[in-house]
Amino acid sequence: MAALYIIGTPIGNLGDITFRALETLKKVSLVACEDTRQTLKLLSHYGISVKMLSCRAQNEKNAAEKIISALKEGSDIAYVSDAGTPALSDPGTVLVRKAVEAGFEVIPIPGPSAFSALVSVAGGPGDKTVIFEGFLSPKPGRRRTRLKELLSTGAAFVLYESPFRILKLLEELADLEAERYICVGKEMTKLHEEFWRGPAEKILLTFTGKNAKNEVRGEFSVYVSGRASVPNLF
Prior knowledge:
The chain has helices at residues 19-27, 36-45, 60-72, 93-101, 114-121, 140-151, 166-176, 200-208; strands spanning 3-7, 30-33, 51-54, 77-80, 105-109, 130-135, 156-161, 181-186, 194-199, 220-224. With 234 residues, it is of the alpha/beta class. It folds into two domains: 3-109, Tetrapyrrole methylase, N-terminal domain (Cobalt-precorrin-4 Transmethylase, domain 1, 3-Layer(aba) Sandwich), CATH 3.40.1010.10; 114-224, Tetrapyrrole methylase, C-terminal domain (Methyltransferase, Cobalt-precorrin-4 Transmethylase, Domain 2). The chain has a five-stranded parallel β-sheet. A five-stranded mixed β-sheet has the order 6-7-10-8-9, with helices on both faces. Helix 3 runs parallel beside helix 4 (93-101).
């Protein structure tokens, strides 16, 4: 029986793809992807030529039906998002559910994830529980309310943020919990990768102070410790 492969792809550095992911992409009959233009860059880099189908958030339900039809015809299919692991703040959940409901095997091909990459270098106080929140609501009231809820859980959490709202996020964190330890990762695995670690108030000053460089370009991931502060670390 045909199978659907859910493949993690690089979040920036194309060298981070796994051998298993490449072998799978080479053997499938169709690669469904969030953005065919982005996936084409990856496939072309590794000399892989295969038919592609768009399956993004806006058309995932309809695209899933086409993918299920192809699976029924006996074709193995791979699904990739633009970067990282599908279904982590990316499309994929609807497709997986429909494939399972149709009786097909869904096989994970683990790979890069901004979430796990950031947690691995955050240097926090050993939080045992880490909540993956992804993007907060762009609406100020909802964002602040959710931040308060997350800060009160006692667990660490990871947020994704755009360059357009990263300063607002840091301002809110510093206002709500000035001493809360955070780690901000920018453009992870890419040429201009950078990390900032320390109390929320200190990191905000790094981004807004007199000596601040233009730090707000690129994509950001933010780790927030579950503890109010990290004594003797800084």
